[in-house]
Amino acid sequence: MKIHDFDIKKGFYSFKFAELNTESHSHPVVEIINAANGTFSLRSNGRTYESLVFAIIDSNTEHKVLSKNCSIRMLMIESNNSQLSDFLGNKRITLQNGVFAKTSFVKKDGLFSEVKNLVRTKDLKSPTDKRIIESIKFIEENGLEYKNLIPELTSKVFLSDSRLSHLFKEHIGISIKKYLVWNRLRQAINLYLKESTNLTEVSLQSGFFDQAHLTNSFKNVLGVSPSKAYNSRILQS
Predict the structure, then answer these.
(1) CB-based burial of residue 115 (10 Å sphere; 0-12 exposed, 13-18 middle, 19+ buried)?
(2) Which residues contact 80 (CB under 8 A, 6 or more apart)?
(3) pLDDT for 218
């Protein structure tokens, strides 16, 4: 695995895999897969898509990917406002049951580059509600446990527990508790890439109980174990 971008602030992550074989998983990011050569398969919502060269999987959509003898480029984008969906809509790209999949797509490389440019020049991560923006910022800047986090958030944005939970899921698509796990995973990966440390230390520094806790969360959210994903510490240019 080569990592071209890992930008928590913008919510933009770019990878290249020689091969990729995931378990079924879902995550709060839009995933875009572009075959550099060969084809891959995708399973989602009980349907299997074979011989694909390009796919878009919406956030929080259960799926698994298999690329054998196929190197792929992948973008993962935190899309919490309408800019990405508007961009895709203008390209006449629509997702059916959270998936856009193509066995042949002449414009795939150009579209892949355009999306990367969109993410780098626009803010796709920030939701439209300022209270949720403030909540996300607080979660990312403070390593609080969930039970201590909620009272801090509600007092900060002047909302009840139930109202904050409802608004958060409406704008982000997942619960605050699940977002807390996502935030810890990003921090863990970032630490592993940039620091000379092992998975046990990374787990504890990122708020997980131990390495097993990190591994289980990693598989549920990203579909692979940390040991398979972390075969390179170097951010590629």
Answers:
(1) buried
(2) 11, 124, 125, 126, 127, 171, 172
(3) 87
Q: What is the pTM of this model?
A: 0.92
CA–CA separation, 218 and 212 (whole Å)? 10
The per-residue pLDDT for 235 is: 53
Q: What is the pLDDT of residues 51-81, one digit of tens each?
A: 999 999 999 999 999 998 899 999 999 999 9
DSSP 206: T
Beta bridge partners of 47: 44
Tell me if 199 sits within 8 A of 176, measured CB to CB. Answer: no
Which of 231, 217, 234, 148 lies closest to 183, judged by CA? 217
What parts of the chain have a pLDDT lower than 70?
196, 228-237
Per-residue confidence (pLDDT) for residue 230, from 0 to 100: 63
Distances (CA, A) of 161 to 50, 80, 201, 219: 44, 21, 33, 29
Going by the DSSP 8-state scheme, the letter that residue 11 receives in this structure is: T
Distance CA 168, CA 175 (A): 7
| Contact by Cβ (8 Å): 154, 132 | no
Position 202 scores a pLDDT of 84
Identify each DSSP E strand in the chain by its residue range: 2-7, 12-17, 20-21, 30-35, 40-44, 47-52, 54-57, 64-67, 72-77, 99-102
Place of tokens 């796709």: 124
